Amino acid sequence: MAVFAAMLLAFAWVNSPAVEIYDLIHHTPLSLQVGAVGLSKPLVDWINEGLMVFFFFAIGLEIKREVLVGDLASPRKIALPAIGALGGMLVPAAVYLLFNAGNPETQHGWAVPVATDIVLALAVLSVLGTRIPSTLKVFLMALAVFDDFGTLVIIALFYTEGLSLVSLALAAAGLVGLIGLNRLRVTHMTPYVLIGIFVWVAVLESGVHATIAGVLVAWTIPLSVRGRPMLSIVETGMRPWVAYGVVPVFAFFNSGIHLAGMSSAALIGPASLGAGFGLFIGKPLGVFGAAALAVVSGLGKLPPAITWLHLLGASLLAGVGFTISLFVAALAFDHPAALQGVTLSVIIASTLSAVTGLGVLTLAAESPQPAESEERSRR
């Protein structure tokens, strides 16, 4: 996959004699000037605060579609993944804080293990093809939608500093303009793009993390106009650019781990252990435990053809937190050594989650389904 290739390239590059070239590219200052107004940031910040807006824009489109016409449109359908997602956010955060209790330097990284990288999780799930019920993919996607929404709220509430009310007012004005385009049933994307850029700059200057602008703008895109599925068209057009462009570039700029400069303390430090165990242990424990409670209590029920073993496998895949976990880590940790330790921990935990999840789902695929077992017992 492009993401893994980008990650491996970055890892090999920073641990080679050409590491200075990587660092030079990584920190190259870039400026955008329009009249007296200008922005100047290192290239990595343009990636994390600019390019990643498109990633969150795609997430916003997916959330809106699922809520309005997809698998989250029915209250009965959303109960199980919603409750599972809640457990899958609370338990990993608790595991992280358990390792970092009383440590003010690392406690603020509690949100690193709370999100699922749905692209990679579904990629792992696709390995089994038709051997896995399609309803399991729907469950995992719905779970990730709630995960993503919760993570966005966390970023907005807990990783925001120095709010500017003027900039927030400008961003709100831009959103009103986008809503107006929606109400007028405008189908040309140019005005959406221009006003969307304005909203992004305003949010960037407001103190709220700029990627939130991507989700807000996505929710102003009309679902359909005169029978034309506008939101689906935009989402379909965005998907390959995000999957093969935005996410690999982000992975390349955020996976460069200097092994030579990494101490054992960073690898086994509380932040690294909290992030790793939060993803690999806390995430599946939270998802499976909360979903099981929902089924037992009657608040939710297992979708057709899904067994408890399927649910366990999907819960393990929820521990694949690569992209958003690294994104939150970059927000939470300023010190390079601490960030690299947490980054390596996230990569290891996500890999273990993928491997164990795939193993459990392979076992589930080989096990007789409930209908098959009943038929055999009759014979």
TrEMBL record:
| Residues spanning the membrane | 46-63, 78-98, 110-129, 138-159, 165-181, 193-221, 241-261, 273-296, 308-332, 344-365
Coiled-coil residue spans: none
Family assignment from sequence similarity: Belongs to the NhaA Na(+)/H(+) (TC 2.A.33) antiporter family.
What name does the UniProt record give this protein? Na(+)/H(+) antiporter NhaA
Q: Name one GO molecular function term.
A: sodium:proton antiporter activity
Instruction: Give the UniProt subcellular location, in the record's own words.
Output: Cell inner membrane; Cell membrane
Which species is this record about?
Hyphomonas atlantica
The UniProt keywords, alphabetically, are: Antiport, Cell membrane, Ion transport, Membrane, Sodium, Sodium transport, Transmembrane, Transmembrane helix, Transport
| Source organism superkingdom | Bacteria
Q: Which gene encodes it?
A: nhaA
